[in-house]
Amino acid sequence: MSTSPVGTREAEVLTPRRTPGAETRAGAPIRQTNLWKDAWHRYIRNRGALIAGIVFVLLVAFCFIWPLISPYDPDAVDFSQANEAPSLAHPLGTDKFGRDLLTRTALGGQVSIGIGFAATLVILLIGVSYGSISGFVGGMLDNGMMRFLDALYGLPYLPFAIITLAIFGGASFWTMVIALSIASWFTTARIVRGQVITLKENDYVRAAKAVGARWYRILGRHLLPNTMGVLIIAIFLELPGVILGEAFLSFIGLGISPPNASWGAMAEEGRSVYRIYPIQIAVPSIAIATLVLCANFIADGLRDAFDPRTRET
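Given the sequence above, the corresponding structure tokens read:
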């Protein structure tokens, strides 16, 4: 029996063509991915967050690398070069002591960024410890700890930091870290508590309890690692507030004192001459604004990246 041309065409259409090397075995494993890879792919597709991350990394790298390769001593005083305008020798000019403003900005960024990250890590350490214990234990202990936290929310942030600096009798790197973190961990504790309360109802936690795992192993092995996405977001949410707090305290004369540099201290020095030499207050102000905006964009992008409701199917 001969086959008609129409039937032959139909058979060709209905039969899928096999490309060389494309045969799949029955039961072959499907390529697996994980939360971190998925979050990274979603993050890099967010143009605003990606650009903010690149600018953030470049700014931090500039602050820590430029003082090492700069031809100028950031603390060397030369009144013969005081208040020079921007030039090829001094791209941002000099301050009232003749110090290169570009090098001073990088050096001040080291202090401001260092205080920001150190205080943020202290905030996370206290907040994670407090929130995880409260959420994991639950019951009356959780209720008491949360009511105590509600009472602490009444503490004003900056006035309490000023009181802390007054108690220490001066401002240094670590006293600034303590002053900026001592009244800033409340929100982190609430976030971690909510995450732990949600995660501890999962089946893998019940299975760990059933096989006799100790509470600290369940907390450290199963619960806290699953809050890492939220904690990374919390870092970039807390960082802008800490950097602005340091800048404010230094600007009113309670923070880092000369000859040490920070962006807040540089803005305070430029305040007295801002009418004649506006660049001396504009440079540290722009640096603070850039870092704060980048951190906020990064936090927003990370929130979208780690949100499972935005996961692509």
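Confidence is low (pLDDT under 50) at residues 6-16. Try to locate this feature in the token string yourself.
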